[in-house]
């Protein structure tokens, strides 16, 4: 009998009625002849309410205790979903992350799954039960402490369990119809993507696409687990995130979509001595603070001064900390000044067709130029081109690029990028 | 270093401010030179809110899932108390019932503790942490399922942990000052009891006194663990529930207090054939339904008919079920009719001095007679006399008896029962 792993997010479990609706969908999946293992998030606003409570007793709660508190959220929703299923006459058993064998490292608040030993889940499935598992949580391998996985943790739980159980598919239910060619709030003509490769999805997620978190996609890619992202509010097919078997799918569109990201800031280190090791020293100081940087640009140095400017982007949330670090080593590094800019936006064009179709970058730059949008930084991967613009020009940029690559045509999937020689 | 186990109930943990107040008290206990292990209930109305949620998704939720849901309540409060302690600069570690080694039988909703293996607790205490444990919950020995202990479960957790840890005292914090000679809502002159024996407390709890649940007292008595019942809203001494070392304390008052109970109903089986085995058949039918009965009275049979009436009391919640059972075996048992009466009240006078002071019953009956209160049933133990009255006369009865035994005198403890010859 096929095994389906489903994951329902908090917006699909907002209240008792939503829970009953989700229970009905789970029972239907079971009745269609599947074994079903379901991963649930906390109900609607529960996590925020728990965080408010924590904040009310302590401005800086210990992470171990915060994990203990937050894991109560999924515990409630998993029990309620099980009850709602029982009320429909089917039989369900709920399990915490720890009971489900979700083994993590020891890092509270953002633990990584290092193993899944789903013995109790398999047993319950074999006994004919529907299984409900608390997402977002696990138990640490060494200290046996309760951990949480951080943002997107429930999706990761679902994919990890699906892989461990050798499920046929992992269905991620959310409140939108799937992955879109761009954020529909910015591009009203954005289309739902029917199929996207794991590799493309990984670049989209890393570039700011919000529906699937990067780590979940990475996990699915590592284990070759197909994901079906779909709405819990309809029965339409959503987006299939699939594993390419070596060769690219020749039928696939060249461009998968346009992602955008407003979460980064830019720091420019002005007047760095253009001698070997200077850039390394800058980034070593940053790395020592566990701050990840994204794009880096180094200007050609001025011959007269022998000095240059280095710019890089990083999460806004780490911005002030990075500035403080660099100020503290200013004398040592010998630069002239620091500029901090959090009014930037990043646009990323993603598509595995870029490998075989030259000219994508040229079309991208021309589309931005035609819209009067200045490009401040550029970075590329094999299947992605990213540019930094002014924050207030980002929405226009996304729309212009979406149109330039034929993504908002009525039958967009059929539009083949022509390589016009630009 | 002395080890103190404290238990805080939901009314002491109603909101963030209450939690901070409790944390302060815990830290003070630690600073006074104790190791501290704290058992917490769910915050204020949390359990009721969770039950409402369960009810909204299923009228008859599976007990396993209900336990999974309800145990989220203590999980939240224990994490929040730990955070509040950390915020005061001390270090706390919270543990679920399962993590704390509270091993129970397999009965969901009203599991019994069968063992406590507090390895992780001892380790955390030895490492210098304050330990916070979720009350009311455990893990079943055979099935490794999460269980709850039912009413008064957190008190029982505290006493069981105190016994397993060989604590010096188990402090039960509540919203009243201790155990009273009668319910102060009925007897405004009721006094706080300073010291009461375990045996007396057990009779008080079994007779309807609400502050400590019977099973918790039984557990404390079995392990000889002294309990200090006190208010979390003051620093006054509360009531010590202590273990007598064989001999009765000669300084102790003869009468400990007056308990009352409105939770029972009376069933009278009319016209039972007064032949051997008839009463046994009645109570066998009841017992087969797992219904506990309390008092039993059999009238002297009428010589003319050779028939008699048998009356017994039982929890109101089981009343209708017991009536149905008896109706179903009416032909077999050959009685004439059933009378069901849920307008009764029970008054119990408890005191280990009864053993050595005759005349207590006589004084009790006279006090009731003087107040015009009719006695419908009587039962006694070595240190208790209980009578059944009309429900609407019960409050008057409690006040009359409380006065008759000098319990509401200003210096009541010094009043010695005189045995006036009545």
TrEMBL record, chains A, B:
Lineage: Bacteria, Bacillati, Actinomycetota, Actinomycetes, Micrococcales
Name the record gives this protein: Aspartokinase
Catalysed reactions, as listed in the record: L-aspartate + ATP = 4-phospho-L-aspartate + ADP
Role this protein plays: Catalyzes the phosphorylation of the beta-carboxyl group of aspartic acid with ATP to yield 4-phospho-L-aspartate, which is involved in the branched biosynthetic pathway leading to the biosynthesis of amino acids lysine, threonine, isoleucine and methionine.
NCBIfam families: asp_kin_monofn, asp_kinases, PRK06635.1-1, PRK06635.1-2, PRK06635.1-4
Superkingdom: Bacteria
UniProt-annotated binding residues for ATP: 7-10, 174-175, 185, 210-211
Source organism per UniProt: Rudaeicoccus suwonensis
Gene3D superfamilies xref list: Acetylglutamate kinase-like, VC0802-like
């Amino acid at each position: 009998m096929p095994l389906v792993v489903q994951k329902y997010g908090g917006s699909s479990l907002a209240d008792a009625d939503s829970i009953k609706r989700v229970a009905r969908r789970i029972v239907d999946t079971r009745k269609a002849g599947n074994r079903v293992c379901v991963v649930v998030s906390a109900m609607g606003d529960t996590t925020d309410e728990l965080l408010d409570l924590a904040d009310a007793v302590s401005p800086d709660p210990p992470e171990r205790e915060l994990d203990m508190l937050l894991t109560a959220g999924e515990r409630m929703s998993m029990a309620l979903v099980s009850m709602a299923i029982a009320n429909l006459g089917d039989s369900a058993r709920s399990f915490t992350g720890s009971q489900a064998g979700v083994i993590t490292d020891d890092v509270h608040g953002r633990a990584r799954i290092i193993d899944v030993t789903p013995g109790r889940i398999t047993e319950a499935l074999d006994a004919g039960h529907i299984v409900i598992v608390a997402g977002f949580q696990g138990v640490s391998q060494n200290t046996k402490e309760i951990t949480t996985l951080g943002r997107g943790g429930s999706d990761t739980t679902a994919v990890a369990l699906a892989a461990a159980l050798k499920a046929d598919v992992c269905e991620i239910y959310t409140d939108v119809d799937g992955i879109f060619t761009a954020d529909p709030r910015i591009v009203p003509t954005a289309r739902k993507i029917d199929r996207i490769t794991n590799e493309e999805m990984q670049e989209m997620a890393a570039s700011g696409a919000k529906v699937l978190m990067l780590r979940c996609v990475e996990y699915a890619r590592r284990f070759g687990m197909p994901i079906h992202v779909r709405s819990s509010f309809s029965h339409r097919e959503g987006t299939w995130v699939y594993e390419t078997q070596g060769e690219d799918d020749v039928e696939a569109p060249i461009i998968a979509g346009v992602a955008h990201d407003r979460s980064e800031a830019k720091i420019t280190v002005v007047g760095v001595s253009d001698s070997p090791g200077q850039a390394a020293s800058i980034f070593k100081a940053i790395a020592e603070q566990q701050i990840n940087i994204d794009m880096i640009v180094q200007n050609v140095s001025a011959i007269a001064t022998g000095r240059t400017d280095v710019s890089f982007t990083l999460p806004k949330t780490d911005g002030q900390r990075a500035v403080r670090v660099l100020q503290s080593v200013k004398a040592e590094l010998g630069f002239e000044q620091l500029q901090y800019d959090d009014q930037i936006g990043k646009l990323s064009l993603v598509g595995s067709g870029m490998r075989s179709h030259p000219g994508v970058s040229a079309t991208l730059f021309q589309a931005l130029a035609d819209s009067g949008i200045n490009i401040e930084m550029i970075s590329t991967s094999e299947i992605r081109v990213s540019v930094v613009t002014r924050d207030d020009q980002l929405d226009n940029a996304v729309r212009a690029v979406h149109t330039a690559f034929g993504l908002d045509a009525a039958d967009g999937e059929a539009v083949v990028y022509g390589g016009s020689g630009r």
